[in-house]
Amino acid sequence: MPPSPLVSFADACRALTLAERAEALRAGGLEGAAPDSSRPDPVARWRFDQWRALSPFRSDERFSRRLALQGLDADQFASLLATPASVAGAALTDRPCWMRWMSALEPGGLGRVAGEHDIDPALAAKVPQAAGGGPDLDPFLAPVRPWIDQARARLGHGLVRLAAASGAEPLFAAAETGALLAANLPARLVPVLARTLVLELQVARHQGLLSGESAAARFTFFIARLGQHDVAAALLGEYPVLAREVLRELAQWVDGSLELLACLAADAPRLIERFFHGRHPGLLSALDGGAGDRHRGGRSVRVLTFAGGSRLVYKPRPLAVERHFQQLLAWLGDSGDGAPRTVAVLDRGDYGWMEFVAAQGCSGPDEVVSFYRRLGGLLAVLYVLEATDCHFENLIAAGGQPVLVDLETLFQPRIAPPQVAEPDKRLAGQLFSDSVLRIGLLPFLVGAGGDFEGVDLSGIAAVAGRPSPRPVMTMAGAGTDEMHVVRERLPLPGGSNVPFLGGREGESRQEMEAAEHTEELAEGFTAVYRRLAERRAELLA
């Protein structure tokens, strides 16, 4: 007999969003469900007041606009608040996937409720099975392990299909790729679960529910309890929105992973020709957990490494801007220190591929000088293109070449600064908005206030070891029953944006910071800006 679902239908309904409850109202299944309006429900009244106490909704006009987004008025909203969640869930004619996933414990259930095709038995036999039931995931994932197993099964079937449909020289193997992708799961799920489970750890400790002679032993006991079905079900039933968020992350992980591998399989001939000089790079051997911010349903930039050592960048968005930017750099040509380095781009519409640019040391002081002249020229190009947000993570120092690897913030509109009474401050705000400082490549401080002087996160900043601009959440006492959340400034990891000498095996690495090369920066900016001005008509044409 299969185990009962981790989350009951009634508890799952408590995670319904306002939009989903409004859909139940429009479906016509809530007539008579709400209490008599002549006898207001005190709980519904309290909920209504909680909504109105939120700062965006203290204004009647803003509150009405928010409800109108879901086709509701204040009376309908109050009626929804008074309607039991289970009634609203039962009234939905088309329940959302996450709600069906919560009860999909049978093998392949996640795939079926997500609309996957039936699994071909011949392919199913080839789905890789991880030894011991899967990778050694972070202990905090114990309560959602059944869902992780379901997601991995769905991913495994998808990978087998893609591998079977690949050409004679595929770029990945299903079993190895499934393990690479699964290794990234803790980084996605632990942040979702951690704070809640740390709270539950402290509750269990104060209630005397933990056994063990030491703080570490009691933590181990707590984790073991989380893996018990009834304990996990009680936890997720108490926090149904948490359960929903875990399932959302798993769905995005499966869908995003299969999308990436489908693109890799479809584009293999083009990639081999464009990025690997016509030679097969070997099978996929490493895959980072996601570089940069997440967009469009949890997708992010990924760096792929192949068995031969070659690397490739996948971007889940159109790369027309990157392609044209490289054309612009090539059109500018030599500005005195050699032509700027361009990066190979393959724009495939909704997504694309880019050459991987590795940080590389300079051969000597002359190449450092060339780097900063070229960086000044790049600053001129970005100034003309109304760029912003060119911070240290978006620039790579590749020998004597500064290479910008993220172009999401070109052509930014000029937004008028807030009006202030002091004329000097108004003028300063306007001058900043019109200057090269707006781009973010030159020094700027973030987080300054009180006793903290701030930290420079600009494109030329050497940030390694400097404190984070704001306190960030971290865990103290990890691995013990005294584990708790704290917020503190943590050391920042280093970037790859500062040119350096040395760095080969056995050599020390000496970073060459911009403060000693301001003249070169100015020279490079002036040369390229004049070049753009001289060729203005050609550029606009």
Explain this structure.
It is a single chain. This protein has 541 residues and is α+β, with helices and mostly antiparallel strands. The protein is built from 20 helices and 14 strands. The strands form five sheets. Strands 1, 2, 3, 4, 5 and 6 form a six-stranded antiparallel sheet that branches. The chain is globular and about 75 Å long. The termini are far apart. About 6% of the residues have low confidence.
How do the helices and strands line up, and which of them pair or pack?
Blueprint: H1 9-13, H2 18-26, H3 42-53, H4 60-68, H5 74-82, H6 85-91, H7 97-101, H8 109-113, H9 121-124, H10 145-165, H11 174-182, H12 185-206, H13 215-226, H14 229-238, H15 240-275, E1 284-287, E2 291-295, E3 299-306, E4 311-315, H16 320-332, E5 345-347, E6 352-355, H17 365-384, E7 395-398, E8 401-404, H18 423-434, E9 445-446, E10 455-456, E11 472-476, E12 484-488, E13 500-502, E14 509-511, H19 518-534, H20 536-540
Antiparallel strand pairs: 1-3, 2-3, 3-4, 4-6, 5-6, 7-8, 9-10, 11-12, 13-14
Helix pairs in contact: 2-6, 3-5, 10-11, 10-15, 12-15, 17-19
Helical proportion, percent range: 40-55%
**DSSP helical segment count:** 20
Shape estimate: globular
Count of distinct strands:
14
Which structural category fits the helices and strands? alpha+beta
Distance between the termini: 72 Å
Overall average pLDDT: 84
User: Any low-confidence stretches, pLDDT <50, length ≥5?
Assistant: 105-137
**Computed CA radius of gyration, to the nearest angstrom:** 28 Å
Q: Can you summarize the main beta sheet?
A: 6 strands, antiparallel
What fraction of residues sit in β-strands?
5-15%
